[in-house]
């Protein structure tokens, strides 16, 4: 007999209870681009299924979640709830040691200067961010970018300029890299160069600057997520010795 009870304990939060003990938790939140993501934390199939049924009945569609491709049991649970594949992204471990990345000699092209993390001015940085987003949308498409860098509904795409290093050509910014200061292993969230300045070594120079500074501060590796369809970015990270350590699957319920 199923004695699992589901209670909504707060806005966007549910608990699965058995004999007044919490055996599962569900949560939902709206990401910057407006999409609704959810998560369910429970090792019990019954609790997971009951939480999923209750949450899906109360939430608007479409709904999204991320699953580690290696977690077959969790992927099966979401499939049972009706979710199907949307996209995938590979997780990379990126060494910072120039002797491993071969970036020690990487320099920006003539006329281009690298401004380190925190040195960029907000307005030209936002202008560059909007430009590269429009260029990627017209080619690869931002749906293939990691969810962390999808645009916000209010167009405030650059929330914290201190997380960015940029490549400047004169008074114009032509490339950027964003690094989130996650403890022990910082995450490279975005690396982009204006379309008319690509294939000149600017992306490599940005990586060399950021990774080199991390290495000098004692950080041995960073992480990065690259959409499976972004073959150019994958080739760059493969070339500097980054190791693919996992794959995330984004699944959706329409």
From TrEMBL:
GO terms for molecular function: acyltransferase activity, transferring groups other than amino-acyl groups. CDD domains: NAT_SF (cd04301). This is GNAT family N-acetyltransferase. Residues 112-254 form the N-acetyltransferase domain. The lineage of its organism: Bacteria, Bacillati, Actinomycetota, Actinomycetes, Kitasatosporales. Its EC number is 2.3.1.-. The keyword Transferase applies. Keywords: Acyltransferase, Transferase. It is an enzyme of class 2 (transferase). The keyword Transferase applies.
